[in-house]
Design a protein that fits this description.
Layout lengths: L7 H8 L4 H22 L7 E4 L5 E5 L2 E2 L2 E8 L2 E8 L3 E7 L6 H7 L6 H9 L3 H22 L10 E4 L12 E4 L2 E2 L2 E6 L5 E8 L16 H6 L3
Helix pairs in contact: 4-5
């Protein structure tokens, strides 16, 4: 039933996904996109084409022209997230994590992914679970930025340095990003959908940030089907 709501090109792409859970999450992401296109642009997903850059960043074509509307999808655990913005690039990443006994060894294998300053912030957390939370917070932030810029997986993550306030409850917009040592004009919205998850949304332009964070909009599977195409 769900597949018939999507254009043939996306049905074919989904058909190449082998893992059942990945298939269901990807399908849910496309159904979210279907709702967003209708609500934000008044477009039917069957009337547009979803194209991707050579690094896999998706964009929308309508009547052969790129639509000035940017979106990004991420999924992990029980969540599928979609972020969309008119005119400016946007990236979203959701991470799920659980306490792990081998956290120290795990951190050692990931040592090259973060800067010394970021590792210092991680280790400043006085409990292993809090260190793991901060680790995935940084990871989600970096992924959201990479997905917004569309630079691909070959980007050197050491070039990115995030400064987070550890004692600030989320959602928050206080995190700053430095690229190659210089601060950049990007805004990061951070949320915790529930314990064990970290969600980050990256957009260009801190100066244009809203006075308060928009609330996450929960959409159930049933609502995805009920929304008119």
């Amino acid at each position: 039933r769900a597949l018939v709501l999507l254009p043939e090109s996306e049905r074919l792409r989904l058909g190449s996904i082998v893992h059942p859970l990945t298939f269901r999450r990807s399908l849910a992401g496309l159904l979210l996109l279907r709702v967003a296109l209708r609500k934000c642009l008044g477009l039917q997903i069957g009337k547009v084409t979803i194209e991707r850059t050579r690094h896999g960043k998706p964009f929308v074509l309508h009547s052969g022209e790129q639509v000035p509307w940017h979106f990004n999808i991420s999924h992990a655990g029980d969540y599928v997230a979609l972020a969309a913005e008119p005119h400016v690039e946007v990236g979203v990443d959701v991470m799920d994590f659980r306490p792990r006994a081998d956290a120290r060894a795990f951190f050692a294998t990931m040592h090259s992914k973060f800067t010394p300053e970021e590792w210092e912030q991680i280790r400043a957390c006085n409990q292993p679970d809090l260190q793991l939370l901060q680790f995935y917070r940084f990871w989600s932030l970096k992924e959201s930025y990479l997905k917004a810029t569309g630079v691909g997986l070959g980007f050197d993550l050491q070039r990115l340095r995030f400064e987070c306030q550890l004692d600030v409850p989320r959602p928050c917009i206080t995190t700053r990003l430095f690229v190659d040592g210089g601060e950049v004009d990007w805004m990061f919205e951070e949320y915790v959908p529930e314990p064990g998850y970290a969600l980050s949304v990256a957009t260009v332009g801190r100066e244009d940030m809203p006075p308060s964070l928009p609330e996450l909009q929960d959409v159930t599977v049933g609502e995805l089907f009920r929304w008119p195409g």
